[in-house]
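> run fold DUF4708 domain-containing protein
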Amino acid sequence: MSMYTLANLRLDEMGGLLLQIDMHFDNRKNMAYAVQMMLCRTILNQYNNICVSPGEDFAQIILIGEAAVIEQPSDEFKAFLRSQRIKISAKLSVDCDMIVQSLRFSLFYWLESKLWYRVGECVMPRKLLTIRHSSLQFRIDPRLNVTSEGEVLLSPRCEVVRVVPFEMWQLDDEFGPAKEGPVAARNVNVLPRLGRGRVVAFYRSLPKHSPFSSYAQLKIYWKNTYGYELPNEEPPAYLDVIFYGMKESFCYPSYCVLTAPPEEVPYRREDEMTRSALGRFVTDLSSCDVELCGHKLQVSEATKKTRFDLTAALLDVPPIHPNKLKKNGIVPKFAFKQKLQPMTNLMDKYLTPTKQNPTGQSEETEEEEKDVDVDVKSVKCFK
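> ok
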């Protein structure tokens, strides 16, 4: 597997910020995920010396970079955040996992200018949007790692996959071709995250209930939110998709709907195809004029020592030692029988029902209390 060095960071000089988005401004809460994605891209477009990743909460953005730049933001940056209705919520301590998470999202954004689009957790060429029938394509998983010394490593893995786009005949039933409007639900996966949902209706033209007045507006939305450059021609259909756990449907162009997620398949020319795809991917990434947290992005072959150390770390699985019990350490079932017998007598004594005398005091059913003597010598200990 190929391995490349992207940059060498000084981890002790890194800083992070947690940004909070005002979701109540301009009714943003109705499309929180889209707003979060759009603002992340806007920040990366304005400042190329930082890395950004969306937070788990749709109202949060994580930003990392050099501590000198991050922890003391300039007045220009503060004014930019105010214009976007974003405020600084807290300062964060940066670790390797946070760098990988932010760099991964930033990498997806940088590659969009080279027509590599995010598909799930991988990237694929723009040709994906123009496929009309099932075909073999390739995808690249940009695996990232950051060592304790701050070396950023990229290990791209290329796979040949079968892509099955959604076709309109899949909505037909026993009565013939489906008509516009509600249809029998069909499971699909939609780009870019390959979310799973169900098609519940389709239209030949942009429906009236769509928030967009034209296909041109829809193209701008997909470009600003997901980085996708949709084809100039209108799609054959628009599909209403309902995701599991949601009540409202979302309108998608058929370009962005797949019958199933891309599935890896063996291919006899796989080596030739993947080698060519990896070469193109590395070339396009090298041509990106960006900075990685203040360090210019430079794609170079990793040294043999770095490859060996990282491979050893990834394969270093702690051994599992079975619970070895010595034969003499196992306690037989009858070990506690003689010890439990006296306790049983005591429990019988104290759990015996009592009756009340006229004065209100409890009276034992037996006139005399008999002490139970435990013969300590009779209790055997097992080592």
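Confidence is low (pLDDT under 50) at residues 316-331, 333-344, 362-383.
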